[in-house]
């Protein structure tokens, strides 16, 4: 006997429904929908409970986050925060989430284990302004266009074969610098400025055959170096436009305007060189394979290329060479010379090695360099203490992933603090001491596979110019310490203080006095 249903609403409901309404297929469909909803709710709840949290970090302020507390010397500021918050930490930078990675293990996760995810860049406004809208190797998103640009640059401009073929260019410019220092023997010279011009002349000779000579050398070298220095400083400077994209059109700090002005100076040079080369081709006076610019112009005209090279991309590559290749190498030479001069025992070891391998009545050649293991160790140790790009170039994950047990959201700006890793006392004994001995016997390389030491980065976005930088720095250091003794002006003390930018530089330029080591004038020609 069924129970009596007395409630009017229930009686009405029962009378309005029949068994047909709840036939087996309909019931199964309803149960399936309920089950699916329950599963979805359970998964969401479970995911919420099990998904790793964001990295820890200092407390910020409403709307602005941690922006007001940023120190201009970001590499040391980030290192100090890591000592409190751990090897993966976050900063809320306006609307942008910044993530700082400061250990070999977490750097490996970013640059190797999740290389493809982190192969893109969070392009700053200054980067777009400097590189024709982000059209160069540094800022172009990972994909076919980037692979084409890197292949062109590495295989044609920076391969060992190409670098071997233009050795005479490097030799000529380094010998000019030796002559410059010889004439000014006994007087203070700005070492970094002259090394910048040496590298600039090598690069422009490779690109389009142009060098700076005569009286113009010193003045133009100073001017060019200032432009490049200003550009790299702007690239490393926190910019409100990057952290609040909706405000970018106002350019409150004037960074975009200033960068466009600086980039325009180089663009004028590029336009002039391109027009000259095109005119030579029209007149039939161009020689096959003459330089890098000619190769790029021919590549641009290839109609069957899978990924064509545009004129914008061509000029962006030239900008990469001028800006990326000059300041980094000359600053590395300057830091290395400062560290060497600060330790007389290191000077003696370098010069003893050079006299054994090169001799006192000979000129340094690049063929001597592989036989100078101590000098190699000096360069490696200088790059350990003063990596050219202390935070590398910031990465940007294309998908949310987990690093060091924490969630790193898609679109974050990820900094890898290689400067801090290179000075970590848990990795390096006496980490603040300049000790080349730690790199003897083949220890340390630039491949990016050792995440205790990777001054040129790692993974797909590793620096494309390692071979060029190594040759220029080692050849320059060997020549300068073989040809001269160096000392500071009377009463001066060595200042090794760094100044942060996307490229690290000496806060106080190295001004030193050269003294010829040999009496034979032919060794200074």
UniProtKB/TrEMBL annotation:
Q: Where does heme bind?
A: 463
Asked if the Swiss-Prot or TrEMBL record annotates the protein with the keyword Heme, the reply is yes
Cofactor entry:
heme
Instruction: Recall the GO molecular function terms of this protein's record.
Output: heme binding; iron ion binding; monooxygenase activity; oxidoreductase activity, acting on paired donors, with incorporation or reduction of molecular oxygen
Q: Which Gene3D superfamilies match?
A: Cytochrome P450
**Pfam families given in the database record:** p450
Q: Which InterPro entries match?
A: Cyt_P450 (IPR001128), Cyt_P450_CS (IPR017972), Cyt_P450_E_grp-I (IPR002401), Cyt_P450_sf (IPR036396)
Q: Which domain of life is it from?
A: Eukaryota
Sorted UniProt keywords: Heme, Iron, Metal-binding, Monooxygenase, Oxidoreductase
The similarity annotation says:
Belongs to the cytochrome P450 family.
How is this protein named in the record?
Answer: Flavonoid 3'-monooxygenase CYP75B137-like
């Amino acid at each position: 006997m069924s129970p009596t249903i007395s409630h009017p609403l229930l009686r009405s409901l029962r009378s309005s429904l029949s068994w047909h309404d709840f036939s087996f297929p309909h019931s199964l469909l309803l149960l399936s929908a309920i089950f699916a909803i329950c599963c979805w709710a359970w998964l969401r709840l479970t995911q919420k409970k099990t998904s790793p949290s964001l990295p820890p970090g200092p407390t910020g302020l409403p709307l602005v986050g941690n922006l007001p507390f940023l120190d201009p010397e970001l590499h040391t500021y980030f290192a100090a925060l890591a000592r409190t918050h751990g090897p993966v930490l976050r900063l809320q930078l306006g609307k942008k989430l910044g993530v700082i990675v400061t250990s070999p293990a977490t750097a490996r996760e970013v640059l190797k284990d999740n290389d493809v995810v982190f192969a893109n860049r969070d392009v700053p406004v200054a980067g777009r302004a400097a590189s024709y809208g982000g059209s160069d190797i540094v800022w172009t998103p990972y994909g076919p266009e980037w692979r084409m640009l890197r292949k062109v640059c590495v295989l044609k401009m920076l391969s060992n074969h190409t670098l071997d073929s233009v050795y005479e260019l490097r030799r000529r410019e380094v010998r000019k610098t030796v002559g410059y220092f010889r004439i000014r023997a006994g007087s203070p010279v700005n070492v970094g400025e002259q090394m910048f011009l040496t590298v600039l002349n090598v690069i422009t000779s490779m690109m389009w055959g142009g060098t700076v000579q005569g009286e113009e050398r010193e003045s133009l070298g100073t001017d060019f170096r200032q432009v490049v220095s200003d550009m790299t400083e702007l690239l490393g400077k926190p910019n409100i436009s990057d952290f609040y994209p909706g405000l970018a059109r106002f350019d409150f700090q004037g960074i975009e305007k200033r960068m466009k002005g600086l980039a325009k100076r180089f663009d004028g040079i590029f336009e002039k060189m391109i027009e000259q080369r095109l005119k030579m081709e029209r007149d039939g006076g161009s020689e096959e394979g003459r330089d890098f610019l000619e190769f790029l112009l021919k590549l641009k005209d290839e109609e069957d290329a899978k990924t064509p090279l545009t004129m914008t991309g061509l000029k962006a590559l030239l900008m990469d060479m001028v800006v990326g290749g000059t300041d980094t190498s000359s600053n590395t030479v300057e830091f290395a010379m400062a560290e060497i001069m600060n330790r007389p025992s290191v000077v003696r070891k370098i010069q003893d090695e050079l006299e054994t391998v090169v001799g006192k009545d000979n000129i340094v050649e690049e063929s001597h360099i592989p036989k100078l293991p101590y000098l190699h160790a000096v360069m490696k140790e200088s790059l350990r203490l003063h990596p050219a790009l202390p935070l590398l170039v910031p990465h940007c994950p294309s998908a949310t992933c987990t690093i060091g047990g924490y969630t790193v959201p898609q679109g974050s700006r990820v900094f890898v603090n290689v400067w801090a890793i290179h000075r970590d006392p848990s990795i390096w004994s006496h980490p603040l001491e300049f000790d080349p001995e730690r790199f003897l016997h083949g220890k340390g390389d630039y491949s990016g596979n050792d995440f205790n030491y990777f001054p040129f980065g790692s993974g797909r976005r590793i620096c494309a110019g390692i071979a060029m930088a190594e040759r220029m720095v080692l050849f320059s250091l060997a020549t300068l310490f073989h040809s001269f003794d160096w000392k500071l002006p009377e009463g001066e003390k060595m200042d090794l203080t760094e100044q942060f930018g996307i490229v690290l530089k000496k806060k106080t330029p190295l001004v030193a006095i050269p003294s010829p080591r040999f009496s034979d004038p032919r060794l200074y020609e």
